[in-house]
Design brief:
This protein is of the alpha/beta class. Helix content is 33%, strand content 22%. The protein has ten helices and 13 strands. The mean pLDDT is 94.
């Protein structure tokens, strides 16, 4: 697709093909463990977030790279079926990113993945119109140079950039200086600051990069965020987890949706937590993307895990 019409959110980042392998428990070294099935499903941090936002009625655009294999056709078909405006570059003679995911009976997953260097999205492959004709940008930082270029264009156009970091890639500083909402996994703030205490590391990152919000998702402990003046905390919702794959991807999608609704920050975090929790009730990164009404129902009625931080909830 070549149009660059005005949309709500554009995502620049990873897509993946995931093979899910349910097992009773994670295999010990040198052991043999029976698996129940092997199911191929689609995933990837930013691609999954754009799919979720599209489900919830936002107009979405995705920019990424695939190989020239059958998995690439699966991605194209799914984006087209759901109405996501997809700009997919092809790496000739190259397989698309793939992962093998072991999921135990508690819903926890272990990921084995491979991504060919030829799948790296380059800055010169981006078009500025794809970025600035949007209300928000979402990146994962993997293809750091391209993500940094997209974020720079977004900053210049006054468009908020949201980043989902689960690893520190070379050159990430060039990206973070133009990120407005940095929401990482639990261990990234310590890697950035050498501070193990989130109540010290999140403000330090906020000050260093000039973000509007710095936050860390904490699995069953919920999410902790710093807005420059105070902390905000949302405990996770209690659900029967089947598979935690994609929980972070859907959390970010929920945050973006709520941000674009103009909701207060606490409601943004609560909505994102509820969306992520519900997605864990089925297999796959996109296994249970529930309608907005069901997410809001869980927000109002669902039990929470015990709070991990003693911080007054703000409205």
């Amino acid at each position: 697709m070549t149009r660059s019409s005005k949309i709500d959110v554009v995502g620049v980042g990873l897509n993946a093909t995931d093979t899910f392998i349910p097992v009773a428990h994670y295999p010990a070294r040198g052991s043999k463990v029976e698996f129940r099935s092997a199911q191929v499903l689609l995933g990837g941090q930013v691609a999954t977030a754009m799919i979720a936002c599209q489900h919830w009625g936002l107009r979405t655009r995705y920019v990424g790279k695939v190989g020239d294999d059958s998995a690439a056709e699966l991605h194209r078909s799914e984006f087209s079926r759901l109405g996501v405006e997809a700009h997919l570059f092809t790496a000739p003679g190259c397989p698309s990113q793939q992962a093998f995911i072991l999921v135990d009976d508690g819903g926890e997953r272990t990921v084995l993945w491979k991504r060919d260097d030829r799948l790296i999205l380059r800055p010169e492959e981006l078009q500025r119109d794809w970025i600035v004709n949007s209300r928000a940008l979402h990146v994962d930082g993997h293809d750091t140079a391209a993500a940094a270029q997209a974020a720079a264009w977004a900053r210049a156009a006054g468009i908020p950039a949201i980043a989902d970091l689960d690893e520190l890639y070379p050159g990430v500083d060039s990206l973070l200086k133009n990120v407005d909402h940095l929401i990482t996994c639990r261990n990234i703030p310590a890697k950035l600051t050498s501070q193990d205490n989130l109540q010290k590391s999140l403000p330090e990152i906020h000050c260093r990069y000039g973000c509007r919000l710095t936050a860390a998702t904490l699995g069953q402990d919920g999410v902790l965020a710093w807005d420059g003046k105070q902390f905000h905390y949302a405990p996770a919702f209690q659900i029967e987890a089947v598979d935690t794959t994609g929980a972070g991807d859907i959390f970010h999608a929920g945050f973006i949706y709520a941000l674009l609704q103009g909701w207060p920050l606490q409601k943004q975090l609560d909505f994102a937590c509820a969306a992520a929790a519900l997605n864990c009730t089925a297999v796959g990164a996109r296994g249970a993307i529930h309608p907005v009404a069901q997410i809001e129902h869980l927000m109002s009625t669902g039990p929470r895990h015990p709070a991990a931080f003693e911080i007054p909830r703000s409205g």
